[in-house]
Design goal:
Elements (H helix, E strand, L loop, with lengths): L6 H9 L4 H11 L3 H18 L10 H10 L12 E4 L2 E4 H18 L8 E8 L3 E2 L2 E2 L3 E5 L3 E3 L5 E6 L3 E5 L4 E7 L4 E14 L6 E4 L4 E4 L3 E6 L5 E7 L1 E6 L2 E6 L2 E6 L3 E2 L3 E2 L4 H11 L6 H7 L5 H8 L4 H14 L8 H5 L3 H11 L11 H29 L1
Helix pairs in contact: 1-3, 4-5, 6-7, 8-9
Length: 397
């Protein structure tokens, strides 16, 4: 929902050549823009494919065949002549270049190459007897692409996801490895519970569930799926994007969101929200529009997270009521027009989203409360040690 896309920055971002400022801009944009996320996936996929192609010496007769093909082309008027590329001793028209590439691909295929190894991740049996495929895991093993990892009620395991993070697979869980490469690392959670901690660029780690896709934006979270396919996401740091089709919920640290089969992601709310608000949100997501009144009545300024998502999930008088309550809790950005917000004007909603984030985080990719606590503890630790050492010294004296 950004007004300006970042297509021109995606290639340097993918290659690691973007400046820190450019990286921050791209990552903030990708968290909300499906179109640019798709373009980035295309860049990563192309890079991954090219990196796996071997270098093969072309046969001597290749250029002769290309020249013969060019000579057989019918003459064209000068006005229709395609642009030429220079090469020592040869001028190649752009359409012919495409033909040359096709021939080269055929040559590579016919030369033959070794089959690439099947991607796999390290997995450790933490407790009990988890199973990988048909194998019982004892100690450390590997989970290969396409294999299922299953735990019973008395077992758990830990997966090392390439070099970007870890996933704890909790009891009574069934999870499958579905992709691993430069463009993405992916799991499918059929049922049970997992806890992920990932440090990677946005959308490099993905988890499919029966109701929605969870796209990691550099964070830690738990994800549950029951036997009916419904899920619950709780984020402890960073952010996660829950998606299904055009429906998206961005869930920051300290918040949670349900997923519903056939519907996708529900409406996120903070875990410390009033019980009445959380219950009303659940009823609203289950198809009870009358519960919106209870949501609005129990919302705090921090719950603008929930109201912002509800703007796009309501219509008419209900949307107007959501807007009015949100504006009463969090002043709309300067220049905001009510009519634009009610029309879901993208730049207007983006500005408001940027503003409400300051209610719960200094850094849109981090948990500021945890950062403050960590900093306070780091300052207290030297003082505590000094006090302990002084006490020990006095006791010895």
């Amino acid at each position: 929902m950004f007004a300006r896309h970042v297509s021109g920055l995606l290639a340097p971002y993918c290659r690691g050549e973007a400046t820190p400022a450019q990286r921050r801009r791209v990552e903030a944009h990708l968290a909300r823009c499906e179109r640019c996320r798709g373009e980035l996936e295309g860049f990563r996929l192309a890079e991954a494919c090219l990196s796996r192609l071997p270098l093969v010496q072309a046969p001597e007769q290749l250029w002769g065949r290309i020249e013969a093909g060019l000579a057989a082309l019918p003459a064209r008027p000068s006005s229709a002549r395609p642009r030429l590329l220079a090469r020592p001793g040869l001028h190649i028209a752009l359409p012919a270049l495409a033909a040359a590439v096709a021939v080269a691909v055929i040559v590579v295929a016919r030369q033959g190459r070794s089959k690439p190894p099947v991607p796999s991740w390290s997995v450790v049996g933490v407790e009990g007897a988890p199973r990988v495929g048909s194998r019982t895991l004892t100690g450390t093993g590997r989970i290969r692409l396409g294999e299922w990892l299953e735990t019973d009620s008395a077992s758990r395991a830990r997966i090392q996801v390439a070099d970007i993070g870890q996933v704890e697979v909790r009891p009574s869980t069934r999870v499958r490895m579905t992709a691993s490469g430069r463009s993405q690392h992916r799991l499918s959670l059929a049922r049970g519970e997992m806890a992920a901690r990932v440090t990677a660029p946005p959308r490099l780690f993905l988890v499919d569930t029966p109701a929605a896709l969870a796209a990691d934006l550099g964070c830690a979270y738990t994800l549950k799926v029951d036997d009916g396919g419904a899920g619950l996401l709780r984020v402890t740091s960073g952010r996660v994007s829950l998606e299904r089709g055009s429906r998206q919920s961005v869930v920051p640290a300290g918040a949670e969101c349900r997923t519903l089969p056939g519907q996708g992601p529900g409406t996120p709310c903070f875990s410390d929200a009033l019980p009445g608000l959380k219950a009303a949100v659940d009823r609203f997501d289950s198809g009870d529009p009358a519960s919106l009144t209870a949501v609005l009545a129990t919302a705090r300024p921090r719950d603008a997270l929930t109201l912002w998502h509800l703007l796009a999930r309501t219509e008419g008088a209900d949307r107007a009521a959501v807007y009015d309550r949100m504006a009463a809790l969090v002043a709309a950005p300067a220049g905001t027009k009510r009519s634009q917000a009610l029309a879901l004007h993208t730049p207007t909603l983006d500005r408001w989203w940027a503003q409400i984030q300051t209610l719960w985080t200094f850094d849109p990719f981090g948990n500021w409360q945890q950062q403050v606590l960590t900093y306070a503890k780091s300052r207290q630790e030297p003082e505590r040690k000094a006090t302990t050492e002084q006490g020990s010294k006095s006791a010895r004296e």
